[in-house]
């Protein structure tokens, strides 16, 4: 066994770059080897997997777990962006093994392609309504200022059964989660709790009410609220940046105008993965991975962005939504939303265009394992 090569490039840094500029650390990570060692934002080493085959092995490895209880003892959970340990708060993103499989069985049938297709008409209607309202204001609209956040939150609230007059509250809660002030984050979590309660009120008919009937009996109402929070927050966190990149390329005329909505969505998600890294995983015991010895409680990440965009990558499924038992439950809904926006723009706003050259658009890397988002997307929807 050998030690993983260390990289000095910081893959977790906050930065601003052009829409077409690759992340400055990606090439350095890839060149260093299939598994490399970097300094974690919360301190100490982290191991980053840059090879597709090794990543897929890690994503199903029984000793590489998601439970934050196995994080390095010195990590501050807030600095690291960790959820509560699985024993304190059941979650699809922190459970492993049989407990995860049981909770996933409660969620997965609600988010199949068939179930999501039942919402396609309303999703298209929300996109049309919101873009039409922006077009009616005349002049230039910045779609990153409101649409890319409001649209996915409207969709996820509608699907879950949260009253649509609470969407502004959901927007404020999502933005509050990015605050450096613990009090503001606490207020955002309290707002999510109220939104979950609203979705579960008697007479509501969304997927939140169905989920309540499917989760394990031992879950408390507060724990159920947390599960609904994760669906709302993740539904915005990933789809919001993807919409910006997708719309930028559609309105710039790239790729070719003949590309289908499906093709545009797949290519955008591959090139601009909404999560550049997997969520944190940790070794639950000493193990060997890719010829590297990892001690117990080692933090492990998969470089989704780097693997997806590797110049020598073979054709096939990418890692945008992960792989293995933790494959993203909301993948079908996210792709349906993105396709709907492409179709509405093409059908209702054939003359829509960027108000600036594509090369002028900038993306901000948010730091840590968070993704990047366009800083602005000025468009002219109707001349």
TrEMBL record:
Transmembrane segments: none annotated. InterPro entries: Cyt_P450, Cyt_P450_B, Cyt_P450_sf. GO terms for molecular function: heme binding; iron ion binding; monooxygenase activity; oxidoreductase activity, acting on paired donors, with incorporation or reduction of molecular oxygen. SUPFAM superfamilies: Cytochrome P450. It comes from the Bacteria. PANTHER family: CYTOCHROME P450 YJIB-RELATED (PTHR46696:SF1), P450, PUTATIVE (EUROFUNG)-RELATED (PTHR46696). Belongs to the cytochrome P450 family. This is Cytochrome P450.
